[in-house]
Design a protein that fits this description.
mainly alpha, elongated
Length: 136
Amino acid sequence: MLKKQMIHPLAAGIFAAIVTIGYALAYEKATVIEGEQLQSLREAIPMLHLFIAPIVGCILASAGFYLAQKVNSKWGIFLFYFLFAGLSILTSFGIFSVYNLHEEIQFTIYGYAMPMHYFPFLSWVAFKPLFDSIKK
């Protein structure tokens, strides 16, 4: 049986991955991204990355949380949340470095990919109380 320290990031990561893929598909449909535009988008941001990145992000976040908690129990948790939120914001600006997109979706990509950077943080925080209530 897996410990709650591994189940929490996996559950949050899988949830974030499902939300990310759902958001991607809904955004593509709502903005009518299809054909060459969709192919260009898939080359820039493959669907597999949309699934794997939130899971890896949540696993790394859990490692950071437990490390921060061990280093300083009083300020460590606050520092972790502050850094995790800040890192989510900073990585969302990485979308400005995506080039070689179909010209019609060049500016649409920002609304597509920027919100996805917040899904791991939001799901990790949402799932945390559930796993804190489970006794060791």
